[in-house]
């Protein structure tokens, strides 16, 4: 698919003589060396990434890592020193100032960490701002702004002033203002970082909800790994202006590229991130109702199992057939296995279920847990051993108990 | 060797008096017509009607107490027979403030946008505020002769700086995220100025206007020395003719006027903040 945003070899050097700092950077000098020699600060060092339409792309890094600079280069709030930024196949950095205005008005909107609301305007007038600068007439403006306020659940507050609202509500106004122009791209710069933890979680959930409905392309900046893992389809981790690693949350957690990323992710409870979809496997054998008990028995014998899953022709799970029941059906010469299919003791999860949620069931259940796809189809199974193995892998083992003889032997 | 800055200044002034006459006459004409306009407007209604209007203005902008003060204070001025002189001074102050804002606010905006302008403007403003008024009274009289016009000019020089300074400060203090938000939604430069920067800076700009008015009032007596008339003239009469009563009465009138203007503009500034 055509990428929505593509960034190639982007550099930003702050200071009076970026042309002097640039060659040093290419020679591989560090950020602090360059600062010492030229007085220039490296903001972004050769960033390359792309964002697909409808994707939530999270850029994560500590303060000073250049993440806020990178998002500002996308709409040229900050002018990059070198590189290319392509949005829908056109190079933003070469756009004329008129074209850039149009791009900012229609294609991308931004949400700010400290909201950036205008204190002298009511909530409605704030949300209308983006439409107002485009020259939209007042009736249209109000209609669109009210629709945006409805999306974020702020109907009824349109005549309040920003100062009368709580932080969470102010950021809803910020979000509504960004949505009012119906842009294809949302740039969110630490949008939830200024909110207290409870409200932050709530806003994250609402953003996920909104995103499910609207499928915008979102570039989200954060310093919070949990937020990145929760919201991001893919995550880019930044350090000293460089992008260290780009990958899905699972990639980042399971294959951290270097020590920096490893240090970042080591305190994350990976069992909450890795999902059933990642560890599920194909059921060795399944039968449909049109197969008789004899076929079922043969499958079970072949795979050495004492039960078999039964699905219908649309791959919906019907239940489980045990070897005893199958044998009895055969003895009584009955062909319809549905008579003995049972549904008790059979547990079902989705591909998104994190393994921490699977664990209790996996330990106690008699049969493997069935994993269904989002459309409710049989997608595979997860058994006790694979869950335990994964949990084992996820746990930090630096301080695991050591056998006494080894301890004594090192003396 | 002594560098004779004083005579250099003198030569410049003489040169300007000789060759800048047309220009100064034009400026004088404009200022004079504004002062006359203000004065006619202020003295057109009967003093009691005018007092009523001033009181109503105070009532609607500030609190009831200010309105009561206005009524009593202005009635006192009228009773002391200083109404005409007070209105003359008010016309002069209003003219000076009006011109100060017309010149000062745009320069303030410019200075907020450009560090170069700011660096040039800053010492000039310091100069204007600290140079003793008497020093520029003489050239003002040379350029514009005696009367209201040099009075307005002297007042203007002294009261212009806060209008520039606080406009610039107000705009520079607009939080960067508001400005960034405005840019990110595709605002043009003038949209940012008129929809974001000026409204957000308004409370600070209003404080600057208040300061400008107060400084202008403080020049009333000095303006009186070069024939600007009004309350300044009455105070000077009190001093030179040792009429303690007249000097005191004129002084009280200035105070009443000052408190009135201060409270009303402060209330307006507060209203700008409280939105």
What does this structure look like?
The complex is a heterodimer of chains A (411) and B (275). With 411 residues, chain A is α/β, with parallel strands linked by helices. Chain A has 17 helices and 16 strands. In chain A, the strands form four sheets. Chain A has a six-stranded mixed beta sheet with strand order 6-7-8-3-9-10, sandwiched between helices. Chain A has a four-stranded antiparallel beta sheet with strand order 2-1-4-5, with helices on both faces. Chain A has a three-stranded mixed beta sheet with strand order 11-12-13. In chain A, a hairpin with a 2-residue loop joins strand 4 and strand 5. The longest helix of chain A has 18 residues, at 197-214. Chain A is globular, with a radius of gyration of 28 Å. In chain B, 87% of the residues lie in helices and 0% in strands. Chain B is built from 13 helices and no strands. The model of chain B has no long low-confidence stretch (mean pLDDT 89).
The biggest chain-chain interface is: A-B, 31 and 19 residues
Q: How much of the sequence of chain B is in beta strands? A: under 5%
Distance between the termini of chain A: 60 Å
General form of chain B: flat
Give the overall average pLDDT of chain A.
87
Low-confidence stretches of chain A: none
Q: Which value, in Å, is the CA radius of gyration of chain B?
A: 21 Å
- Large-scale geometry of chain A: globular
Distance between the termini of chain B: 61 Å
Helix content of chain A: 25-40%
Tell me the strand percentage band of chain A. 15-25%
**Record field, number of beta strands of chain B:** 0
Structural class of chain A: alpha/beta
Name a few traits of the molecule:
heterodimer; A: 411 residues; alpha/beta; four-stranded antiparallel beta sheet; 17 helices; 21% strand; globular; B: 275 residues; mainly alpha; 13 helices; 87% helix
Summarize the structure.
The complex is a heterodimer of chains A (411) and B (275). Chain A is of the alpha/beta class and 411 residues long.
């Amino acid at each position: 698919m055509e990428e929505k945003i593509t960034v190639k070899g982007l550099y930003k050097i702050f200071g009076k003589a970026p042309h002097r700092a640039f060659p040093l950077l290419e020679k591989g000098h560090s950020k602090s060396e360059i600062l010492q020699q030229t007085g220039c600060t490296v903001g972004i060092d050769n960033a390359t990434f792309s964002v697909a339409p409808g994707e939530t792309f999270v850029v994560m890094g500590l303060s000073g890592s250049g993440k806020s600079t990178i998002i500002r280069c996308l709409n040229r709030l900050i002018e990059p020193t070198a590189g290319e930024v392509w949005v829908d196949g056109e190079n933003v950095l070469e756009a004329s100032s008129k074209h850039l205005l149009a791009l900012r008005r229609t294609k991308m909107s931004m949400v700010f960490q400290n909201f950036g609301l205008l204190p002298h305007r009511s909530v409605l007038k704030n949300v209308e701002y983006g439409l107002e600068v485009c020259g939209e007439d007042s009736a249209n403006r109000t209609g669109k702004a009210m629709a945006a306020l409805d999306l974020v659940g702020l109907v009824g507050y349109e005549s309040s002033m920003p100062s009368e609202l709580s932080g969470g509500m102010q950021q809803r106004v910020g979000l509504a203002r960004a949505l009012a122009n119906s842009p294809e791209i949302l740039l969110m710069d630490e949008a939830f970082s200024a909110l207290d933890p409870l409200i932050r979680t709530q806003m994250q959930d609402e953003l996920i909800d909104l995103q499910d409905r609207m499928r915008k392309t979102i570039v989200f900046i954060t310093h919070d790994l949990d937020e990145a893992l929760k919201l991001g389809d893919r995550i880019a981790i930044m350090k000293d202006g460089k992008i260290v690693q780009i990958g899905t949350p699972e990639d980042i957690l399971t294959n951290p590229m270097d020590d920096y990323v490893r240090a970042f992710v080591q305190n994350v409870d990976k069992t909450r991130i890795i999902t059933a979809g990642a560890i599920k496997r194909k059921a060795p054998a399944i039968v449909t109702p049109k197969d008789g008990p004899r076929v079922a028995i043969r499958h079970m014998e072949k795979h050495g199992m004492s039960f078999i899953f039964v699905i219908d022709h649309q791959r919906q799970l019907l239940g489980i057939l045990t070897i005893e029941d199958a044998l009895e059906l055969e003895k009584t010469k009955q062909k319809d296995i549905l008579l003995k299919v049972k549904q008790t003791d059979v547990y079902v999860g989705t591909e998104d279920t994190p393994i921490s949620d699977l664990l209790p069931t996996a330990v106690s259940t008699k049969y493997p847990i069935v994993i269904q796809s989002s459309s409710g189809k049989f997608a595979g199974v997860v058994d006790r051993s694979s869950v335990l193995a994964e949990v084992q892998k996820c746990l930090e083992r630096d301080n695991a108990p050591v056998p006494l003889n080894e301890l004594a032997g090192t003396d | 060797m002594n560098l004779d800055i004083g005579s250099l200044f003198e030569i410049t002034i003489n040169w300007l008096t000789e060759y800048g006459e047309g220009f100064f006459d034009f400026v004088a004409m404009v200022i004079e017509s504004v002062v006359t306009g203000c004065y006619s407007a202020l003295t057109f209604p009967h003093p009691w009607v005018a007092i009523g209007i001033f009181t109503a203005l105070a009532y609607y902008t500030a609190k009831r107490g200010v309105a009561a003060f206005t009524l009593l204070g202005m009635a006192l001025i009228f009773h002391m027979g200083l109404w005409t002189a007070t209105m003359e001074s008010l016309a002069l102050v209003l003219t000076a403030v009006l011109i100060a804002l017309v010149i000062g606010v745009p320069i303030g905006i410019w200075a907020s946008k450009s560090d170069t302008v700011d660096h040039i403007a800053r010492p000039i403003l310091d100069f204007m505020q600290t140079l003793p008024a008497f020093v520029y009274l003489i050239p003002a009289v040379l350029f514009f002769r005696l009367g209201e016009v040099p009075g307005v000019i002297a007042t203007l020089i002294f009261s212009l700086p806060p209008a520039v300074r606080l406009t610039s400060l107000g705009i520079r203090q607009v939080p960067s995220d508001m400005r960034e938000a405005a840019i990110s939604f595709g605002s043009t430069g003038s949209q940012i100025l008129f929809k974001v920067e000026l409204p957000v800076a308004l409370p600070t700009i209003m404080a600057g206007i208040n300061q400008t008015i107060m400084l202008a009032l403080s020049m009333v007596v000095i303006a009186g020395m070069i024939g600007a008339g009004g309350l300044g003239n009455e105070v000077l009469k009190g001093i030179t003719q040792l009429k303690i009563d007249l000097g005191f009465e004129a002084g009280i009138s200035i105070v009443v006027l000052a408190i009135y203007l201060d409270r009303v503009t402060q209330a307006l500034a507060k209203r700008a903040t409280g939105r």
